[in-house]
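worker-03 picked up job from queue 'complexes'. Input manifest follows; two sequence lines, order preserved.
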Amino acid sequence: AQSVTQLGSHVSVSEGALVLLRCNYSSSVPPYLFWYVQYPNQGLQLLLKYTTGATLVKGINGFEAEFKKSETSFHLTKPSAHMSDAAEYFCAVTSYSGGGADGLTFGKGTHLIIQP
Amino acid sequence: EAGVTQSPTHLIKTRGQQATLRCSPISGHTSVYWYQQALGLGLQFLLWYDEGEERNRGNFPPRFSGRQFPNYSSELNVNALELEDSALYLCASRIQGARNEQFFGPGTRLTVL
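worker-03 finished. Artifact:
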């Protein structure tokens, strides 16, 4: 079984400050890890993903995340927050077999608040 | 390129009725996934269809069912609706290949009265 823990249901940062959203996972098989963003009354948009290879992955809108196997973490960062970053962020994990990629297991989400 | 589409946008039903939700994947995507996003419960995996077959299901009762058609579109059926079925139902599609992500639709908001 796989699981995801997102520390902090709400994170508040000032505009221009560093954004750090924490994600820890549990998986008995090599994980595929994702960060998605959800704006109010919308579906999910992929920010970035880790499957194999380079452990530091860059995504859209200036976000990046680093896969740390020893810490079972995949924290999301952005050097400088913008007002438009205010949204709900979800970390997710899945695994891949010859039959395809299974359904995603999501964390409970982190609501990012940007203070002017 | 058109994204994942879902219909209807909103659906209102009463307890005991049946609901049918529809999803059209991105062209070329053969896998369709269904998720439930209920208040307080977060995003939970419901069903996975690939090449017309159910590949896996999450921890949901059998009254949640679905199918995938030859054109890869999909239906989610929820029978004997209960109040706690009220949620946003998200569909996602994925193209074959190990490193490919799921693309999500805008969702169907189901309200059970």
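worker-03 released lock.
The interface with chain B takes residues 32, 34, 36, 42-46, 49, 51-52, 90, 92, 96, 99-109 of chain A (CB under 8 Å).
The longest strand of chain A covers residues 19-26.
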